Amino acid sequence: MNPSLMMSIAAVERDTGLSKDTLRIWERRYGFPNPARDRQGERCYPVEQVERLRLIKRLLDVGHRPGRIVQLPTDDLQTLADRSADAQGLGRMAPASRSRLDTAPTWAPGAIVSMPAHADETWVGPCLALIDQHDHHGLHRHLRHAAASLGLLSFVTAVATPLLALVGDGWLRGRFQIAQEHWVSQLVQQVLQGGLSTLPEPLPQQAPRVLLTTLPGEPHALGMLTVEVALAVWQAQPINLGAQTPLWDLVHACAAHRADVVSLGFSSAAPATLIQDLLPELRAKLPASVAVWVGGRHPLLTRRPVPGVTVLGDLSQLQDTLLRWRQTRSAPGRPVPSHESD
Q1: How far is the C-alpha of 323 from the C-alpha of 329, rounded, in Å?
Q2: Beta partners for 58?
Q3: Which of 118, 220, 293, 309 could form a disulfide with 263 if both were Cys (CB 3.0 to 4.6 A apart)?
Q4: Range(s) within the chain of domains with CATH label 3.40.50.280
Q5: CATH class held by domain 3-86
């Protein structure tokens, strides 16, 4: 066996995100992975098994259970990944070009059967080509140009949000690697933060005051930033606490900031216990006068709604909910700004 095509267990852990203990447990319980041994008797894994482990990790991240997928062959795993991506409502993506990285793959509308709703293909399509090419600086320039041309809120709705959804979908289908997803998210975040810095500071009387965060165990915070942009443009008072705020700290922050709303994001990979257990607990600990708005792609948000919690599917629903809040829940005597868009 060619040792150059083998990876140590430490390398597999770094590459896949699966711990060494998990790999050993699966080996005993399911018979996969099935590593060889090097001259020192240490486990080493063929690259074919590592590719299969990457696919398994993608499926675990969107809610599949190890006992149902670890023993599946690679073709079945890829079919399941495609179905999982389809279930999230995105169009099928053609495989990425296998040309050399210094040759940009040509993007064409036919590369994706259907763009997400509200996506501006003239901006999003070239973004995908730049990601395929691993052109970090080119994508950064393109995103900044899009934000300057469209305005910040239109950039969020027509470029940033659909692009991130497509990249996540492409990761699930195997088109993009996790490293690509990470640097694309980082670039979008930089552009949004730069745009936020140009917006005027909210006035003290503007309402509602909205705390933005995620619960412990949910590290994905980019969705909060898009909501922060929208709320700032619509003349609310967003207060971004960052990701993974502990429950009691969030309750205390709500009181300290005299918040009207707590807004939480849940990615499709968030642990189910956050929605089933922590979200109801938070709702019970907050005053009834404080609204709780949640968004994201986790299926449990709509499958098992929590009483007293408003689920927002997209920014248009956020805008409608904000308008209703101002019409029905604005405190007496507090000026309510006009409902504006970008």
Answers
A1: 10
A2: none
A3: 293
A4: 209-328
A5: mainly alpha
Answer whether 319's CB lies under 8 Å from 234's CB: yes
Would you identify the CATH topology of the domain 209-328?
A: Rossmann fold (3.40.50)
State the Cα–Cα distance between residues 301 and 34, nearest whole angstrom. 37
Task: Read off the tokens for 10.
Answer: 């430490």
- Residue 205 per-residue DSSP state: T
pLDDT for position 88? 56
Ranges of CATH 1.10.1660.10 domains, the chain: 3-86
Closest CA to 171 of 103, 33, 269: 269
pLDDT greater at residue 294 or residue 113? 294
Report the candidate in 221, 223, 222, 225 with the shortest Cα–Cα distance to residue 199: 225
**Is 190 in a helix, a strand, or coil?**
helix
280-321 residue pLDDT tens: 999 999 999 999 999 987 888 888 889 999 999 888 899 999
Cα torsion 338, 308, 287, 248: sign: negative
Q: What is the pTM of this model?
A: 0.70
- Which pLDDT score, from 0 to 100, does residue 87 have? 60
CA 196, CA 203: separation in Å to the nearest integer? 15
Q: What is the mean pLDDT of the chain?
A: 83
Closest CA to 63 of 306, 275, 298, 313: 298
Strand order in the sheet with 6-8: 6-8, 43-46, 36-37
CA dihedral 312, 313, 316, 322 (to 10 degrees): 0
Q: What CA–CA distance (Å, rounded) separates 188 from 84?
A: 25
Q: What is the CATH number of domain 109-196?
A: 1.10.1240.10
Look at residues 226, 291, 231, 229 and name the one whose alpha carbon lies nearest to residue 265. Answer: 226
Q: pLDDT tens for residues 180-228? A: 888 999 999 999 999 999 988 887 777 899 999 999 988 888 888 999 9
